[in-house]
Specification:
Structural class: alpha/beta
Radius of gyration: 19 Å
Number of strands: 4
Distance between the termini: 40 Å
Length: about 150
């Protein structure tokens, strides 16, 4: 897709693409084992602040039988996580490479502490050119708070 968006040549190496965008690209193969353990072990040796993980979005019996690798990794790694579902549209327009993020919903309550979610939403808004609408939805009773219509 980067070639389609004219951000690189079709035959550029990963290293050339990384240099062009000022990012380090590593392709690392982890030993065949439990994927949760492999990712957590890698995270211990090479700490990251954000995981971006594809998820199948299983529900019901399939989720109970197979679990969620992405959710388990996110819970155990204690790192911010962005889950990408195959049923949703991303933030990048495939035809043009344009980054679009119009609205961010941040459901919050008193527990867990909402500060990390608020900080990440603010950073995502900044990435979107400070144009994205950020809406905080508090769950629970708060006197004087606006009520949802539905």
């Amino acid at each position: 897709m980067l070639a389609q968006w004219k951000l690189m040549d079709e035959f550029d190496s990963m290293q050339a693409v990384g240099e062009k965008f000022g990012i380090k690209i590593d392709k690392i193969e982890l030993p065949p084992q439990n994927p949760v353990s492999a990712v957590l072990h890698y995270q211990e040796r090479h700490p990251s602040q954000l995981f971006v993980m594809a998820t199948e979005g299983r529900e019901g019996l399939p989720r109970w039988l197979h679990g969620s690798v992405a959710e388990t990794v996110a819970r155990r790694a204690h790192v911010n996580a962005l889950f990408v579902s195959p049923q949703t549209q991303g933030f990048v327009v495939p035809a043009t490479g344009e980054f679009r993020l119009g609205k961010i919903l941040v459901p919050i309550s008193d527990d867990p502490r909402p500060a990390p979610a608020i900080e990440l939403a603010a950073a995502m808004r900044k990435l979107a050119g400070d144009t994205a609408e950020v809406r905080f939805v508090h769950f629970g009773d708060h006197p004087g708070a606006a009520r949802a219509d539905d």
